[in-house]
Give the backbone structure.
Amino acid sequence: MSLLSARGLHVTFPGRRGAPPARAVDGVDLDIGAGEIVALVGESGCGKTTLARSLLGLVRPTAGAVAFDGQPLGYSSGALRAYRKRAQLVLQDPSGSLNPRHTVYDAVAEGLRIHGIHRSERDERTAVAEALARAGLRPPERFFLRYPHELSGGQRQRVVIAGALVLEPELIVADEPVASLDASVRGEILALLLRLRDELGLSALVVTHDLGLAWNIADRVAVMYLGRVVETGTVESVLTRPQHPYTRALLSVLPESEGAPVVLTGEPPDPSRIPSGCRFHARCQLLASGEATPVADRCRGEDLPVLPGGGERSVACHWVTTA
């Protein structure tokens, strides 16, 4: 049974000044198993952050349902409070996540206090020290009285991770966890997430635009475009044998890829103007080159089903399914 699952998830935001509503998430099934790391990848504006926030209960879906450990997610204040102790968010900007007026100790202990986990001062100190040590800040007592401006970017991100770990969650949702860090530090943070999975059995959803990051950390990958997952499967199957033309385009710009990068034409994704048929058809390099001419009418007019949320390899593409 999946630890976290979404079924038929939709998130729609009202349009401005009479504009059509924005369908940020437009039908998604997604499963995350216990101890599994799933990478959710796609370019900016594809809806991946909105999907992640809806999975955490921070954005209430317009339709569909989220379940955690087999139980439907409730949206009362009490239900969300209990859920957010078990599922924690790690944001991409550690500087923005930390109050500059709070010490490292207070930043990590804040979760314990918010959730009313009553501990003696000694127990709280022990819990904070253990969380900092697990996040790789050793000896932890050395960091207690420091402020965020006294830390490096990598150390600040570790403090944010420690603030999540202090509540002993079962799931971490990391939104671009290394995007703001120097290249020399990114590997350390990714190695930390893998170690936490191995030592604590943590599950994780890692939201990223970087397929190289997904390759290094994920067990499974879901590629998202314009509000919907268009390709999913194990990281090896998707990233070594990409089938959807959008996935191929994303992979083509990696330094280690062979051949010329694929330059996508047309307008970038607009969730208020989702086209009929395949939502990628206006920018598809296979249609533009004529390779997909036999299925061109289907691409432009026939909708594709929502992909299953489990681990099986799936692709939402008329050309792939008929080839």
Notes: The mean pLDDT is 93. The first strand starts at residue 4 and ends at 13. Residues 154 and 184 are 9 Å apart (CA to CA).
